[in-house]
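F.,

This is the one I mentioned.
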């Protein structure tokens, strides 16, 4: 079959027949390409891909993973593989790739198209991809980590609508249930913060789209906001962010086992503004990273000696 992607042992689920007709594939926003780079040599052994909004977070995660995996060069700065492009940043730590995706669905979609093609060109197999992000919690304590069982849209439906030409194509947002359970099991070894499984609501906006009263525009009352957030809670939503439905849809269609793990920066039933200090927020951001490091170490059969 032409232009197929099949990272999971179960094989192919999506195809782009045009790709095989192209002599060269330029991954413009990553500043990589099939003629300019030896992608199988650079990335063929990648087994885990972790993505998150901010370049600094993803650099810190790669440095942290180097230490956690006991790799040579741990403690030194890591090089940005996409330094020729200032759209996204990409770092490596052994079999782990750490990439930033910016904010919102358009930004993560562009990155994922190019990343998935990169993994395909590099002939990667059995890749697990995890979004490690931040979110607004719903009825949960700030600092809690939510492992997403289902990514839902702002009407609490497990679907992602992609406009393709002049059609709206509806895609499933199912995530890998076994992977979510495996992550929950790993979290039991990290007692310093609560971790739970729940639905994650993905919106197109941080302010009106997430029912905030503190944006430049707001046309609803405090009562309407709370009614909406309470209905979301009753539908099983435990946190709100801005990429999970597109992430789940694209990864699922391309055969990647995917998970979303986000820390809650606040409880949206209590307020809208993020008031925690930079130090507290930095520590919160590290919580999903610690959980994923424990998961990767376990998958690689590494035993803690410290
Ligand atoms: O913390 P990250 O992963 O960037 O993601 C969350 O933070 C951003 C909003 O502040 C949105 O992109 C949302 O999804
Ligand atoms: O409330 C929040 C916090 C982080 N990210 C979001 O998308 N929403």
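My design for it:
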């Amino acid at each position: 079959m032409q232009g197929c992607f099949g990272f999971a042992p179960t094989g192919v689920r999506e195809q782009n027949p045009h790709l095989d007709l192209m002599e060269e594939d330029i991954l413009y926003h990553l500043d990589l390409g099939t003629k300019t780079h030896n992608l199988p040599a650079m990335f063929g052994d990648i087994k885990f891909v972790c993505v998150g909004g901010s370049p600094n977070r993803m650099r810190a995660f790669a440095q942290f993973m180097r230490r956690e995996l006991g790799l040579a060069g741990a403690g030194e700065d890591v090089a940005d593989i996409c330094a020729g492009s200032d759209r996204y940043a990409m770092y490596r730590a052994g079999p782990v790739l750490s990439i930033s995706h910016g904010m919102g669905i358009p930004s993560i979609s562009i990155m994922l198209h190019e990343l998935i093609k990169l993994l395909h060109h590099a002939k990667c197999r059995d890749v697990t991809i995890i979004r490690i992000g931040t979110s607004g919690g719903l009825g949960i304590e700030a600092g809690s980590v939510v492992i997403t069982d289902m990514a839902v849209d702002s009407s609490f439906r497990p679907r992602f609508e992609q406009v393709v030409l002049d059609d709206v194509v509806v895609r499933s947002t199912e995530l890998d249930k076994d992977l979510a359970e495996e992550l929950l099991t790993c979290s039991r070894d990290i007692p310093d913060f609560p971790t739970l499984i729940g639905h994650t609501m993905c919106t197109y906006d941080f302010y009106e789209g997430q029912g905030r009263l503190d944006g430049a525009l707001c046309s609803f009352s405090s009562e309407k906001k709370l009614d909406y957030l309470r209905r979301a809670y009753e539908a099983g939503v435990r946190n709100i962010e801005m990429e999970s439905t597109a992430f789940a849809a694209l990864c699922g269609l391309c055969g990647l086992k995917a998970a979303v793990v986000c820390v809650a920066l606040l409880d949206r039933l209590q307020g809208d503004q993020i008031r925690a200090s930079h130090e507290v927020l930095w520590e919160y951001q590290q919580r999903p990273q610690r959980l994923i490091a424990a998961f990767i170490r376990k998958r690689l059969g590494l035993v803690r000696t410290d």
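Residues 52-54, 103-104, 133-134, 206, 241-243 surround 1-O-phosphono-alpha-D-ribofuranose (ligand 1) (CB under 6 Å).

Talk soon.
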